[in-house]
Amino acid sequence: MSREDFSDTLRVLVATDCHLGYMEKDEIRRHDSFKAFEEICSIAEEKQVDFLLLGGDLFHENKPSRTTLVKAIEILRRHCLNDKPVQFQVVSDQTVNFQNAFGHVNYEDPHFNVGLPVFSIHGNHDDPAGVDNLSAIDILSACNLVNYFGKMVLGGSGVGQISLYPILMKKGSTTVALYGLGNIRDERLNRMFQTPHAVQWMRPEVQEGCDVSDWFNILVLHQNRVKSNPKNAISEHFLPRFLDFIVWGHEHECLIDPQEVSGMGFHITQPGSSVATSLIDGESKPKHVLLLEIKGNQYRPTKIPLTSVRPFEYTEIVLKDEGDIDPNDQNSILEHLDKVVRNLIEKASKNAVNRSEIKLPLVRIKVDYSGFMTINPQRFGQKYVGKVANPQDILIFSKASKKGRSEANIDDSERLRPEELNQQNIEALVAESNLKMEILPVNDLDVALHNFVNKDDKLAFYSCVQYNLQETRGKLAKDSDAKKFEEDDLILKVGECLEERLKDRSTRPTGSSQFLSTGLTSENLTKGSSGIANTSFSDDEDTTQMSGLMPATRGRRGSSTGTTTRGRAKAPTRGRGRGKASSAMKQTTLDSSLGFRQSQRSASAAASASFKSASTIGEDDVDSPSSEEVEPEDFNKLDSTSEDEESTKGKGRKRPATTKRGRGRGSGTSKRGRKNESSSSLNRLLSSKDDDDDEDDEDREKKLNKSQPRVTRNYGALRR
Fold first, then answer.
1. In the predicted model, is pLDDT for residue 419 greater than 60?
2. Do residues 412 and 406 touch, judged by C-beta distance below 8 A?
3. For FRET with 20, which of 41, 227, 468, 498 sits at 20 to 30 Å CA-CA?
């Protein structure tokens, strides 16, 4: 290349998915990701590129370890900080391009000598999180080692709105507009592309001697590309036609040669990962990086193989197609698999590029064992310790799918994305199983799972449940027919409320994670127990809350609860193992959200009145009314909910059966008495006083309830 051509040609080295820190606790493979990244930086120096472009997932984890951060900073310092001049300039508004405290490209900082600029977006592994929305790449950006771009602020209403501002670069007569789009959840970005004006692309302004068409437009993104689920991937046809070249990250299969998209006019390159993170067929292909040379509106790609990558051999075997294997003889299966493994090890040693440092190869055999017995993969791999890098998972067994070959091919292509194996979303699981969600919306559960796994949000699921409980409770309270509800209609009504809430939510200007706005903190969680936060209600609040639902039941329940409380008024501090604040804490269940909450104080009071006989227990476990207020038939019908709740609680405490309940509780009381006798004489006095109080309570309860019929238990009415 002549000197004139060199001054007008922008040279870029493109790589994606370095996954620094992958398998850092494995003694054999812990250095693989760092050696590959070191080789990429060395190639950039050797080829004298203008800058290094990374397409996301520089780190394997959202919160990389200190070892990983230190090694990454050391590699970047060795190769990026030098006295070499930078031949191009950034002519766009840098405060918009680089959203950090400094607001300019790193090589323009007078305190640093940056000879190799590095531009990077974030991926789904190292995406921003937390209150300040920071990524691990922000640490490298603050160290002035990496130019972090493509971080989007999701503004607007509904699915959100983003604006992509390009980094405008100029070298001689060549002008390049570099667009960056960091990873966004595929479902959300898919909807944004199909929503008018949700994704806005900013074009360079027309200047003297430089038209809009003179810019070479490059896009770097990190999203799903394989169309296993149309809503869970980004189609190439969503992208604007003015783009010239696209660097597609996130897909680990190396398709480095640019491919033209029919009817769109741009080319796509998929460099793939530089380290194998999943032992599948797509990862076994040779790894490359791309040298991109741009002059004017033309470019020239050159693929460069990576030699420091650990060898990986993959094959598939169908046992029934092998003639020398006896289905009933396990030794014949072992001999055949041993032969296959030895051949793969020899093949890996012959194909080794770097003879000076031969590494232990990765070997994976997918075995179709239809009609055969399986063997233990760990035991099989013990004989290859020191010969392969993954002796514990050489074999993976599978059965031939009953579906057609076409569907099997789709499944194979879907497995080319190793991240999706561990990050299946709830929406896809529900769709595959043909399930119908009746309580919680699928989108809310999906967001909660994403925040719990990727954002380390410990309260994600609790916030989701509390938000939806409050929303359902509010819908039911507003219903004019709430008084007519019967227990069989409650679940149907909850399902109708779910559909109404989904319709309201689709038109409401809130984000996808709106249930996180409940204001729950760890401080609030510590004030209660058993998951009870400040969303619980006291007994008085229960009275007002339940007045709108089933007033007949409320009146009877109030009379019974009041009677029991008066019986226990002599010993208010005695909690029966529930603590002093037992009256303020209740189980927040589906029944409680629908107006059937019952305080633990009334439950323990009903339990304390049941020590004499099984028949008395059958009467007192339910909040019994007086005989003058309601007929026995109505009592059976309307209080079955309370019985179900009591029987469920009894099951949770592992109480004995109904016929033995009196004897079981009596034995429990005597056991407590024996423990108290062994402790001190004072405790014996207190326990005897408690027993006297219990007998008084039982006498009062028996007098009040002696005319009540025994209620037949109807367990499972609401668990249908």
1. no
2. no
3. 227
